[in-house]
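Hey,

Quick one before I head out. I ran the complex with FE2/S2 (inorganic) cluster overnight. Inputs first:
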Amino acid sequence: MTRKEFLSEMGAATLVVCCGSALLGMEGCSEIRTYLPKVRKDKAIIPRSKFDSKDNYIVLRRSATVPANYYVSLQKDGSFVTVEMVCTHRRCELRPSHAMLSCPCHNSEFTTAGKVIVGPATEDLQRIKTTVDEDNVYVWLKNNLLPAG
Ligand code: FES
């Protein structure tokens, strides 16, 4: 591979990452792990192989079949948790940041399981029904809101 080909490919890869952030309404250019899932019977299907201890989350982008931006994460206890990426303070779009979700509007911060750790937000994030089997993680796209707590 020539230097010119290498630089061309690197530019394209960076563009993809930045476009992914722009689609989420996020500022700056940082790597966000997005995934376009198959949807069947009102469930987004994510292979378990997409998660490991290093890359332990996926962002499902809002689309024709996914009603909101969802953050799906593998927790330390082995469970999978999905939260809606909307701040409970004044509904700004959250962004992943160093194993937490942060709000660019007034700096609230949430754990990846949706618990408030820094205000002004006082309510935890909306959790979304998520189930698993041996091969896949399923994010429910309808009738999917879990009670707080
Ligand atoms: S909207 Fe998120 S902290 Fe205010």
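Residues 3-23 form the longest helix (21 residues).

Talk tomorrow,
K.
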